[in-house]
Design goal:
The complex is a heterodimer of chains A (832) and B (625). With 832 residues, chain A is α/β, with parallel strands linked by helices. Chain B has 625 residues and is an all-alpha fold. In chain B, helix 22 runs antiparallel to helix 23. Classes of the chains: A alpha/beta (832), B mainly alpha (625). Chains A and B meet through helix 7, helix 17 and strand 15 of A and helix 3, helix 6, helix 11, helix 13 and helix 14 of B.
Chain lengths: 832, 625
């Protein structure tokens, strides 16, 4: 990319391309990540500005939207002035305030790509993409297809290009017409560099040409690049590489040019005077971006500030000796509200939050399943496998998806049989949504009556390099790690619930993104059940006692799964409960039902077509139907509106109403004075919560380019991605229906510990540190004793004084829920 | 007589619903969707009641002359309604599927930009559907046919801020329009065969048909071919198949209702409707059967290689439509009707649940994975397998075929006409035209032989104008004025035939002229505001900034293409009645220029107002998205 670099290096260019292409796995493994991860080595505002100037992305809300939020007082004027003063100096506030509110800017964003390839149009009036894209996408789609097509692409073991060459050789009719292109395709000597010499001519332009070309369809290129390194993203293995994909596209371009111009055309560099621009140069100062970044900070701190103030409230609580029950939930923002309801409904209950794999990392193999499913955070590589047995079959068939109705005879028979049946089925589902084999149900991840092999044999069995089950020591390690990180070391309640979560939906291509992120986009049921079983194990308890954690014999752990869409709870292994706990649980489970009703009601205020004033139980029934309705593009709001993550003791934030916007990780600083467990927590929080948050952020600010656009016209491609229509590019990011109500705020991570310990903790891992150093997530340390706040800025903690008053007190949340469908401010809860 | 009114209500209910929905404020999502639902529900209930009553009273086919729109000594334009078991089945299936879709979309489309536009278009489609299904003659059918074409265009281009939907919408509209040549020729030839606007009811009369056809077998064949072309285009049969998968650009329920079930079965409907006419032309029946067979085979092969769910369903559906063609050719009318209904329901459902295919099949694969093996062919057959695979992947060149043999030649002719400019038009063509009029007044001065050629020649000139308009890239004014001028050439051409009165010329040109003036004002306004973004080389997406101007221009485009909102529509048919039986050339050129005039107008609308917005001040999708 440097101007003085005269020789084009194929490998480094492909790596460079791969770095910037969307990094999204196939649908079944959909995991949230920072959409602009390629710019994460720069500070947030600088990185997004560069991304915007190169690729033409929109990276903030539009200027006029900010101004409107300011008019509506959603951006606080005092905060705005403070943000300006901090960044520009106190004497500059008027100047910048006027700029921000009134100056007229040209807000067009064009991007630098497309500068070279446009010359095909300009100098020879040829629109390459129009002809090349459809064929390229169709061939690549047919090759990668996982089960839509009936007649498979003839696969060659050496990969994409080899398969095309094989097809080309064996077919009487060529895929492409030009003789030259065919011989280039088949010749082992052809290289990307060679093809670029034919097409472009000047080596200085090659890299930019490829960027133009590949970013005309980032979805497909990104998929090729991802599958090159994560072939397990496809159950039916396909070998493909970015190299093969680019190679084939170049061949198709040559072939199309040949078919129009004959073989005697000149390379592009000889047809027009083209400059080799350095598209990756550091962006020049832009006042517009400066103003936008000020607005962004102002919007963010307008939201954070009152919450930080609220966290400074000191409440004198009489510690309860033995809580009525304890429940460990996932840190997920969707569990934020159900925890509040449980705490209020069941007096003396205590809840905790920890990443939803509950510190047990393993692969899961359901009975009858042919593959292993990873159920822990994506960056971990587990060494264990948990196998299910004695489970009933839970994958019903539906002929509607069979291939038979797509043949001539099959279709002829299906029309009067399955066809008329479909009319009834469809009418039935539309008027009375109900369970069907078509839907995705969180409870089907594991059979609640099946058995799990959790404890390894004396001599642990090994299967494909994975140990089947855990040894006692390994189990103890997991449980100890979990309890120490959440600070649960004494005062165990008679029943400790471990509640994983999952989601249910129908007609939802992005279903994996709705399940537990800490379980790699699967429901957390297996983990909850496995961890409960480990903690109930008498041997494990003995070992725990040796390590200083004494669990009373009467305490029992119970795994459960919370369905975040339907607001239902499934309990696992109830038969282990002793008689006392059995009757306790009978009472608690009723209370849980009530809490779930209330939670459904709270959620319903965001579902606009629903009447929020009805009694909770009634609303709950309707909420459940959303998960079963074919026509419901928003079964739940998933992580929309997420904005913060609190790492600290629940008792210090349970007095605040956080509107389902916070990840809550339980952590007791006093039990981890050196910050050892904090390191682990932050190492997971930054990429998981930060990734979720930034994916929502970018999908919201530029849904057309960084999001997937509206999902309503989406067409499923080969079971691994979606596109619009027949010949569209693959769509990455989140569909519009997931982000309608999202406010694009960076997440703020608030850690309850001494700032110096927090600083040490984030420094231990380079990748984690980058998130905080470059402000892709905000970090605030809350001094546990003085309640003083410290904001991490320019690599140092600086004291922060909130401007807001103490939050208002909310007497009746129900009334608030019934009256507003908008984002709510933070409230102090009196009954908590 | 009360039956008369009852039947009329099947058109009036959707019409009233459509107009009311246009008038509903955009923000009232609930009102809009509920209105659509109630309209369709009311229609469904009426249809069910009426059909029960009709079956109970003997299920006799009947014909109703509803409204005479125009009549002169030898010509009558009337809205005619016909009801038989085909009507009954189509009416019922249409209302039933539409009911499910409107209910479905009320939730599905929630919060979507263009919510109102969606329901407007669905109701507009519903109107066209019922109109077509109930039509009792070609003229009435053609009104519905035109509404279907436009509503189809609007729904494919529903996401009008993206490039591909707009491009594909223009493409599909063009192919629909090509199919209209068939209906046009059939209408023209019918005039000469029957000397009246023949009703479908009369076609049931074997003696009558037989008597008229004897001695006019050529005309009979022209009519049948016209019908077959129209039916094939509308039902995506061979060689038009490739438009159907490309039409899957709108929200899934609209794709389901249009291309899964209702719209795509109109070719089948047309064949069923006209069956008594070509029943005794064995060659035609064989031809229709062959078209059906080729359609089924090619579509079947292409279905196999589709890796995207919606295109797979589309091609599978086309294969069944091919079979329906065969069934009709064999005279198995009832079977075809059952087949139609079943296929419509099946594909609607399959399309609506298509997003679920990911979770369903991945789960299926997870539990029942088998390494797939294609059938192992012996080596010599392997070559054929590969060849067929490649051909199917390339859709048997069907898409290329349409481009290469229909649109490309027209563009090329247009390019040869680069010398036509706005100035030329005024300074050369207007004098020629005036001399034409003078000639018309003094026909005696030219010899009869030349006079015979003259109408054809004039229509040919008109056609060239339209071709130029269709391929014009620079000047929207020029493209617009050429479409208008074509109509004047045609009017002049027909005027050389006796009996074509001034009043009739007036009827023909009035609507078109008004529409063209309004269109001009739109273009003028746009040019003044956006001089930099005003040509036909690319899509500009001005609708983002000028939604009202865009709507007005759309309506004037409909006007200038003779859409049944102005008197010109009747004029078009009048012209046909005056093209003599021997004037094949005139009829042909006129049809072609009519068809391409419409395409040119829609192309202009699309390029100026639709597509990604030319000003990147807000989020804009990639062209490939």
């Amino acid at each position: 990319m440097n101007e003085n670099q005269s020789v084009f290096n194929e490998i480094s260019t492909l790596n460079h391309l791969r770095h910037y292409l969307p990094h999204q796995a196939p649908l079944k493994d959909f995991i949230h990540h920072n959409t602009l991860h390629a710019f994460q080595n720069k500070s947030f505002h600088e990185g997004v500005q560069q991304a915007s100037e190169i690729f033409g992305y929109r990276v903030y809300l539009e200027l006029k939207q900010f101004r409107k939020l300011f008019e509506q007082e959603k951006i606080n004027k005092n905060i705005l002035l403070k943000v300006i003063a901090d960044k520009k100096g106190k004497d500059q506030t008027d100047f910048w305030f006027t700029k921000m509110c009134h100056h007229n800017y040209d807000t067009s964003i064009k991007g630098k790509l497309g500068q070279i390839r446009q010359y095909w149009r300009k100098s020879v009036s040829i629109n390459l993409d129009k002809v090349v894209h459809p064929l390229l996408f169709r061939v690549c789609g047919a090759y990668l297809d996982q089960g839509i097509s009936i007649w498979k692409f003839p696969i060659h073991k050496d990969g994409f290009l080899a398969s095309i060459q094989q097809l080309e050789k064996s077919s009487l009719r060529s895929l492409i017409k030009s003789k030259r292109a065919i011989s280039l395709l088949l010749s082992p000597e052809t290289t990307i560099t060679g093809l670029l010499h034919i097409l472009v001519g000047n080596e200085a332009l090659f890299e930019n040409y490829l960027f133009d070309q590949q970013f005309a369809h980032p979805g497909w290129s990104g998929m090729a690049a991802v599958l090159e390194h994560q072939p397990e993203g496809l159950l039916d293995y396909r070998k493909i590489s970015l190299h093969d994909f680019v190679f084939f596209e170049l061949i198709l371009e040559i072939e199309y040019l040949d078919s129009i111009l004959g073989t005697e055309w000149k390379p592009l560099a000889q047809q027009a005077e083209i400059d080799a621009a350095n598209i990756f140069e550091k962006p020049a100062y832009s006042e517009l971006f400066d103003v936008l970044s000020l607005w962004q900070e102002a919007m963010e701190w307008s939201f954070y500030d009152p919450i930080l103030k609220g966290l400074q409230i000191k409440r004198n609580e009489v510690p309860v000796k033995t809580p009525a029950l304890q429940a460990i939930f996932c840190i997920d923002d969707r569990e934020c509200s159900i925890r509040r309801h449980v705490e209020i409904v069941i007096e003396g209950s205590e809840t905790f939050g920890s990443a939803g794999f509950f510190n047990a990392e393993f692969y899961f193999q359901p009975e009858h399943g042919n593959f292993y499913t990873k159920v822990c955070p994506a960056p971990l590589t587990p060494k264990y496998i948990i196998k299910e047995s004695e489970a009933r079959v839970r994958h019903k068939k539906d002929a509607i998806f069979g291939q038979s109705s797509h043949s001539i005879l099959g279709g002829w028979i299906s029309a009067p049989t399955m066809g008329f049946l479909s009319a009834f089925k469809l009418a039935y589902n539309i008027f009375m949504p109900s369970e069907s084999p078509v839907m995705v149900s969180s409870s089907k991840h594991m059979d609640k009556n099946g058995k799990l092999k959790i404890q390894a044999a004396e001599k642990p069995a090994v299967e494909n390099g994975l140990q089947v089950g855990y040894t006692l020591q390994e189990m103890t390690d997991r449980i100890e790690g979990l309890f120490r990180s959440i600070g649960l070391l004494e005062s165990f309640a008679p029943i400790v619930y471990i509640v994983g979560h999952g989601a249910s939906s129908v007609n939802n291509t992005h279903y994996a993104g709705y399940d537990c992120g800490a379980c790699s986009g699967r429901a957390g049921s297996v983990n909850a059940r496995v961890v409960a079983a480990m903690a109930n194990n008498a041997e494990v308890r003995k070992l725990l006692t040796e390590r200083g954690i004494r669990i009373p014999e009467t305490t029992q752990f119970l795994g459960a799964l919370h369905d975040t869409t339907k607001d239902e709870i499934v309990w696992y292994d109830l038969d282990i409960l002793n008689p006392d706990n059995k009757s306790l649980h009978a009472a608690y489970s009723k209370s849980f039902q009530h809490a779930l009703d209330l939670n459904a009601k709270e959620r319903s205020r965001r579902f606009l077509l629903m009447d929020t004033n009805a009694p909770a139980a009634e609303i709950h029934k309707k909420v459940k139907k959303r998960a079963l309705s074919l026509f419901e593009p928003r079964p739940e709001w998933n992580h929309a509106t997420n904005a913060m993550c609190i790492v600290g003791q629940r008792k210090n934030n349970k007095h605040l109403f956080l509107d389902r916007r916070s990840f809550l990780n339980s952590y007791d600083y006093s039990k981890d004075p050196t910050g050892k467990y904090l390191q682990n927590i932050l190492r997971a929080v930054a990429p998981v919560c930060g990734g979720i948050n930034l994916e929502y952020y970018f999908s919201r600010v530029d849904n057309a380019r960084l999001g997937a656009g509206t999902k309503l016209p989406h067409n499923v491609i080969g079971l691994f991605a979606v596109a619009n229509g027949m010949d569209g590019d693959l769509r990455t990011g989140l569909p519009r229906q997931m982000i309608n109500i999202h406010e694009p705020l960076r997440i703020i991570v608030i850690v309850e510990h001494y700032p110096e310990i927090v600083e040490d903790a984030i420094h231990t891992n380079e990748a984690t540190y980058e998130w905080f150093k470059n402000s892709w997530v905000h970090l605030v340390a809350l001094h546990p004793e003085t309640k003083q706040l410290y904001h991490f800025k320019n690599e140092a903690f600086i004291a922060y004084e909130p401007l807001a008053d103490f939050p208002k007190q909310a007497k009746n949340l129900d009334e608030i829920f019934e009256s507003s469908s908008e984002s709510l401010p933070v409230y102090e809860l009196l009954n908590a | 007589m009360e039956v008369n009114y009852f039947i009329l209500s099947f058109v009036l209910i959707p019409l009233i619903g459509f107009i009311t929905s246009l008038l509903t404020p955009e923000k009232k999502e609930n009102t809009i969707s509920r209105l659509a639902f109630l309209v369709v529900l009311f229609q469904l209930i009426s249809v069910v009641l009426f059909i029960s009553f009709w079956i109970f009273s003997g299920a006799e086919s009947f014909n109703i002359k509803e409204i005479v729109l125009y009549s002169s000594k030898e010509y009558e334009f009337l809205i005619d309604i016909y009801f038989d078991e085909i009507t009954a089945v189509y009416l019922f299936v249409g209302s039933f599927v539409s009911l499910l879709i409107t209910r479905y979309s009320a939730y599905y489309m929630h919060m979507e930009l263009g919510f109102k536009r969606f329901f407007n278009t669905i109701l507009f489609f519903f109107l066209g559907y019922n109109f077509t299904v109930l039509s009792g003659n070609f003229e009435t059918l053609f009104i519905g046919w035109e509404i279907l074409g436009i509503s189809s265009f609007l729904l494919i281009a529903f996401y009008r801020d993206r490039y591909l939907p707009v491009r594909n919408a223009v493409k599909v509209f063009s192919i629909y329009r090509i199919g209209d040549v068939g209906i046009f020729l059939a209408m023209w030839a019918s005039h000469h065969l029957w000397h009246e606007n023949i009703t479908f009811y009369k076609l049931q009369n074997y003696d009558l048909v037989h008597e008229h056809l004897s001695g006019h077998s050529l005309i009979g064949i022209i009519i049948s071919l016209g019908i077959l072309i129209a039916a094939s285009a509308k039902s995506a049969a061979f060689p038009f198949s490739s438009w159907l998968p490309r039409a899957m650009e709108g929200p899934t329920p609209s794709s389901a209702v249009f291309y899964g079930s209702l719209s795509v079965h109109f070719g089948v409907f047309l064949l069923l409707r006209t069956f008594p006419f070509w029943e005794h032309q064995i060659s035609v029946r064989i031809l229709i059967g062959l078209v059906g067979l080729i359609t089924a085979l090619t579509a079947f092969l292409i279905t196999g290689v589709q890796a995207t769910i919606k295109t797979k369903i589309a091609y599978a559906s086309i294969a069944q439509i091919g079979i329906m063609f065969i069934e009709i050719a064999l005279g198995l009318e009832t079977l075809a009707l059952i087949h139609f209904a079943g296929n419509a329901f099946l594909r609607t459902y399959q399309l609506l649940v298509s997003p679920s295919v990911v979770s369903y099949q991945i789960r299926d694969q997870f539990y029942h994975f088998k390494t797939y093996r294609n059938v192992q062919f012996p080596k010599f057959l392997k070559r054929f397998e590969s060849t067929f695979y490649v051909l199917s992947l390339k859709e048997w060149y069907l898409d290329v075929f349409m481009q290469k043999w229909i649109f490309f030649p027209v563009k090329r002719i247009g390019k040869y006409l680069h010398f036509i400019t706005i100035k030329n038009v005024f300074f050369i063509f207007i004098p020629i035209y005036i001399s034409g009029i003078i000639l018309l007044e003094n026909q005696q001065i030219i010899n009869a032989e030349i006079l015979g050629f003259l109408p054809g020649l004039l229509a040919f000139m008109g056609m060239l104008m339209v071709f130029k308009s269709f391929s014009e890239k620079e000047n929207p004014y020029l493209a617009w004025v050429l479409i208008l001028i074509n109509h004047f050439w045609v009017a002049l051409a027909v005027s050389f035939n006796e009996h074509f009165e001034f009043a009739e010329t007036f009827i023909y040109l009035s609507g078109i002229s008004i529409a063209s003036i309004i269109g001009f004002i739109c273009l003028f306004t746009l040019k003044k505001r956006e001089p930099e973004f005003f040509n036909l080389k690319m899509y500009f997406g001005h609708v983002y900034q000028y939604p009202i101007l865009s709507l007005v221009f759309l309506i004037s485009s409909l006007g200038i293409m003779g859409f049944p909102i102005t008197l010109s529509f009747i004029g078009e048919d009048l012209i046909f009645s005056h093209i003599k039986a021997a004037q094949y050339a005139l009829a042909f050129f006129y049809s072609i220029s009519f068809v391409f005039g419409g395409i040119a107008a829609i192309r202009m609308y699309a390029r100026l107002f639709l597509g990604p917005h030319c000003k990147p001040t807000h989020e804009i999708s990639l062209k490939s998205s």
